Amino acid sequence: xxxxxxxxILIAFLTLGYSLxxxxxxxxxxxxxxxxxxxxSKYIPDxxxxxxxxxxxxxxxxxxxxxxxxxxxxxxVGQESLKKVDFQVVNFQRQVIFDSKxxxxxxxxxxxxxxxxxxxxxxxxxxxxxxxxPKTGCVAVVVGFAQK
Amino acid sequence: MKxxxxxxxxxxxxxxxxxxxSCGGTAESTENLxxxxxxxxxxxEKAKTILHSLPAPVDIxxxxxxxxxxxxxxxxxxxxxxxxxxxxxxxxxxNLGIYTADLSYAGFFKQNQVTLNYIKTTKEIANNLGxxxxxDNKHLELINNNQVDKAAMQKIISESFMNTDAYLQQxxxxxxxxxxxxxxxxxxxxxxxxxxxxxxxEKPELVQRIVDxxxxxxxxxxxxxxxxxxxxxMALKPSFSKLKNxxxxxxxxxxxxxxxxxxxxIEEIRTEYVI
Lengths: 148, 275
Description:
B: 12 helices
């Protein structure tokens, strides 16, 4: 019984420690890779760090307001363990406004918002090879605005 | 034999741990919408995981204060001396947001000394909330030596807020993060309304930017739904519902009366937070 209790405590500590270090790594990745791709000489990061650990076949929606007359750059980066990371920007009617798979987008989108709108950045990790274990990795959505 | 048994058990535990760890998965709130209409190929299904990304105070400040007519006025900031009054996570977090909006406003107008003073205050409050390393010392030195332009100042403030954001995510404290964002948003709106003197005609572009913020409020309500079990967040809802109604009136047609009513409401909420 004593051994069982010890075992539970050990599992709890190991799992918590792994989870914290994995989140920390993900956040660091988001800052380093995300900022580099954002090009902070042109765009000021908006101050939010949207990062999450995803597996192949997973997806995430990031809801975000965009304001009329402002120039934005949306960047999505994924860790190397994830072979492919796609993203679409859709409105609240789920109509696609931008698709990273169309054209040579380099997983970023620069645009000027013509109106005030809440948009959804939909990030999708395509499924991996059948039968294999799904790969897991950190994904970050970084948004910057151009100074007037 | 007993030792062998113990070793086998620990091996089993480690194997179990690595199995659990490799399962992946996400910790955020989930929404399953399997019945989404997929007839229209141009429409995209909702994701399993939803993140509501409310704007950071530095972002709101740049939206509001880049409008012509916006200027710096130190008198409308929450005085630094007030910081000693705040206790408890809710008050500390809301006022960390408020002071962050104040320093973003001061930073936007390159008021270096005021910005530095407010950075020191936010660092103290952040420490009281158990948040460390929000501002990098080398950045503080650059501001102190007047070596930053407006864009660089905004980047410093933005990056420091990202550090706070990251720290709170890492330590699973989304309630505190939300309170900071709410406090920052209210303060930015308060500062902007003060600059308009409650008039729709003095600085019409700034008034329009204030009204545009109904978009953020819409998102804020969606975020509140993720915190139904949080007393601190739910306690904010009644006053924000009043704000929602006020926005509705202004979006239906902006008048001097409904704008004045909105300004009063923002001031009342802010007064409640800064005490």
